[in-house]
Design a protein that fits this description.
This protein is an alpha/beta fold. It has 2 domains: about 55-175, Response regulator (Rossmann fold), CATH 3.40.50; about 180-245. It has 11 helices and 5 strands; from the N terminus they run ααβαβαβαβαβααααα. The chain has helices at about 5-30, 55-60, 75-80, 90-95, 120-130, 150-155, 165-175, 180-195, 200-215, 220-225, 230-245, and strands at about 60-65, 80-85, 100-105, 135-140, 155-160. The radius of gyration is 24 Å and the shape is globular.
Amino acid sequence: MIITLSTCLGAMAVPFLNFVATKFYNSVTGSSKNFIWSDKIPDLTTLQSTLDFEELKKRTRIVVIDDEKTFPVSLFRNEGYSIDEWPKVEDYGKLQSGFYDIIVLDIKGVAMHISNDDGLGVLEDIKHYNPSQIIIAYSQHSFDLTKSKFWELADEKIAKPSDFLKMKRIIDDLITTKFNPNRYINTLHAILRNNQVGEKQIRRFDKEIYNSIKGKKKINFQNTLEFINTKTELVQKIANITETILKFFK
């Protein structure tokens, strides 16, 4: 069999053109397809946490901020929950950053030293910086209709006093329905799109998250998000949510 030079060149041209086409496609779309056109980086929402409810319960960091100490913290600890208790807001940075997964927030007498609106002001500010933060509004006062927008921001409401088992059902339901990676990933994508971040850049950031989950490297948010680094507040918001996503895969 005689193989001509033109035949060899033709055979070599096909994979070369495929390689060039793949690189061009990835550059334009932000995809991570390889030379056989399969995507190397799966959709983040397809990643499944292997944690069962008991492990999630242990990992869910809860803080109760209540000046009257009416919340049955000891009963929750006896049931295996990881829960701290503050008589007033003590470390605002932890609240803002998403260190705690669930915040039980009294609306009166806990934050006048940092907000004229007390606990309600804290609730609004935290949701501004970290929209995915789970917050339970906790109060013995009737809901002030003039503060309706604040109540709407809360993920749940618990009145004082309340039965321990009722409280436990509310918190367990929040852990089951809201403390999951897909919710945080969808929130992250929504924030990026609402700030006119293109799909190509979102895809590249997803790749950074995926690599971090796989233990390849820690995310440098300032470098990775350089396309929005003029918006310091947005970078911090994205970093807070991303760190929560990573909790499920450590």
